[in-house]
Amino acid sequence: MMQACFWSLMTISGKPSRDKRVVPGLIAIQLNRYTTLDADLVVIGGGPGGYVASIKASQLGMKTICIEKEDNLGGTCLNTGCIPSKFLLHNSNYYNMASNKNYQSSGITVENVKVNVDKCMQQKQNVIRSLANGIVLLYKKNKINWVKGHGKITNPNQVTALNPDGSIQSVINSKRIMIATGSEYTPLTGTSIDEKDIISSTGALSLSSTPTKFVTGGAGFVGLEMGSVWQRFGSDVTTIDSSSTIGGPNIDKEVSQILRNILTKQGIKFKMETKVTSANKSGNSINVSVENINDSSKKENISCNTFLICVGRRPYTHNLGLESVGIKKDNLGRIPVNSKFQTEVPTIYAIGDCIRGPMLAHKAEDEAVIAVENITGGTNNMDYNSIPHIIYTYPEVAWVGKTEETLKQERIDYKVGKFPNTSNSRARTNLETDGFVKVLADKRTDKILGVHMISSFAGELINEAALAVQCKVKAEDVARTCHAHPTYSEAIKEACLTAYFGKPINL
User: Fold this and answer.
1) Looking at the predicted structure, is the pLDDT value of residue 104 above 80?
2) 100 or 416: which carries more pLDDT confidence?
C-alpha cells in the first residue's frame, strides 16, 4: 500500500482547484490526497455475491480488494432484505401460534399475548450486527481489504473509490474487476417514499408500531411476506396486484391459487388485476387510488395507515463508469455477460442482481464462485433451472425447475405426482396440513423436471428437490430412497412414487 499525492480532478468555477501550500517532503503541488492500491481482483459490492466472490478469490490465491459504500457488509440481503425479513416472519409466526385458539385443543393455552414491536426491532438489529461482524471477521481471516466507498470504473483495469461527497478516496489498479452491485427497489411513478407511512421493503422492516391498516402495492415475494408479518402482528392487510395470480410470474399457477386461498383464510385480502395509480397522504391516513386493468372506469380509493410499494427491484448499475469503458446495459438496466460472467470488456465481470436471472441471494453466491473459478482457469457454468425459489409465508412456498405452464409451452410430455400434507404423518401430528408436494417428471425418461410445494418447511425441503433437478435424478430414484419417518420430506418421496408408479403408499 502506498500513500500518494495527485492532481485533483475537481474544479471550482470550471478551473482546476490547486492547493499551493508547500508540504515538506513532497515535490508535486498537492491538490487531493488519496491511496493507490494494487490487486489481482477488485470486487465492487459487498453483498452476497460480492463478499462470496472476494472470499473465494482469496482462497484461490488472488490478492483481493472489495469496495462497499455502506457501513455494513452483506448488502441488501443481510441489512434490509432476506435476514431481517426472516427474523420478523419467524417471530411473528411465534406470536400468531401463541394467539391461535386452535392450539387450545392440544392442551396449550396462552393468555394475554402481546407483541413489543420496539423490542422485536432491537433484536432484529442485533442479529444483523452479529452477522455483519461475522463477514468482517471472514475478510480478516482471508486477508481481504475492504475499501469503504462507491466504486467507479475508470479504465478496464482500474476502479476509483469515491467518498459520499464525490471526492477520491482510493484508486485501485487491478488485473480484473467484478461488478456485484445488486439491486434497489423500483419506485412507483408519482409517489414519494418517506419510509414512515409510504414505504419500501426497507421501511416495512423497521416500523415502530403495528399499523391499523396495511396495504401492499404488489403480491410478489416482498408483498406476501411483509403482508404476512404485519397481518400476524394485528394489521388489517390488503394486497393489490395487476396480475391475476400471486407469488410473481414464475410460480406454478395451481400453487399460486392454493396459496391465495390459504392466505385469504388467514385474513389477508387481495385485489387482483388492479393497479395503483397514486398514493397520497391526507392527515393521518394515506389514500391509495386504484383501477381495474381490464376496465379503467372501475376506480376505487383505499384508505390505510401504511402503504408498502413493492412492485419489483431493478439493477443497481448507475454511476459505475460502464459507459466510459464501452459496456452497454440492456433495456432493463442489466449488464450483459457471457457464460463465464465476462462483460464485453474481457477484464470486467458481473454477477448477481445486476445481470440476467432471478434476483436471489443464493443465485448471486453461486455465480460468484463460478465466476472466480473461471477467472482462474475453470470452465464451469451456472444451471439456472436448478435454482430454488422460496416465499417465506406460513406455510412456506418453494419450487425448483419447470412449472406445468412452461412444460406445456415447450411441448414436453410430462407426468404429475402429487401428495397432500393431510396424508403426511408429521404434518398431521403438528397440525400443519395445509399444502402439498407436486413432482413433474418426463413421461419418457422419468427425469424430474420440476418440484413445487406448499409446506411449513418448504424452504428446507426444496433443497432435496434442487439436488434432484441439478443431477437429473429420476422420480424412481427418489421414490426408492429411504426417507426418515415421520418427516415432512416423506411427502416428496410419496409424490415421486406417484409420478413413477402411479400410486402413493399412504393415500
Assistant:
1) no
2) 416
The string of DSSP codes covering 209-236 is S--SEEEEE--SHHHHHHHHHHHHTT-E
For residues 388 and 465, the answer to whether their CB atoms sit within 8 Å is yes
Residues 443 and 415 sit within 8 Å (Cβ to Cβ): yes
Question: pLDDT-based confidence at 341, cuts 50/70/90?
Answer: very high
> Whole-model pTM?
0.91
Give residue 32's pLDDT. Answer: 56
181 appears as a binding residue in the annotation: yes
In 3D, which of 206, 214, 208, 209 has the Cα closest to residue 231? 214
Residue 224, annotated ligand binder?
A: yes
- Annotated catalytic residue within 90, 389, 452, 485: 485
The set of cell numbers assigned to 31 is 491538490
Beta strands in 60-163 (DSSP E): 64-68, 145-148, 150-155, 158-162
**Ligand-binding site membership of 274 (annotated):** no
Asked if 329 and 335 count as a contact pair (C-beta separation under 8 A), the reply is yes
Where do the domains of the chain lie, and which CATH numbers do they carry? 35-184+315-376 (3.50.50.60), 198-311 (3.50.50.60), 389-501 (3.30.390.30)
Is 353 part of any known ligand binding site?
Answer: yes
Lowest mean pLDDT among 176-180, 196-200, 282-286: 282-286
Q: What angle do CA 206, 461, 257 make, to 5 degrees?
A: 70
318 catalytic residue (yes or no): no
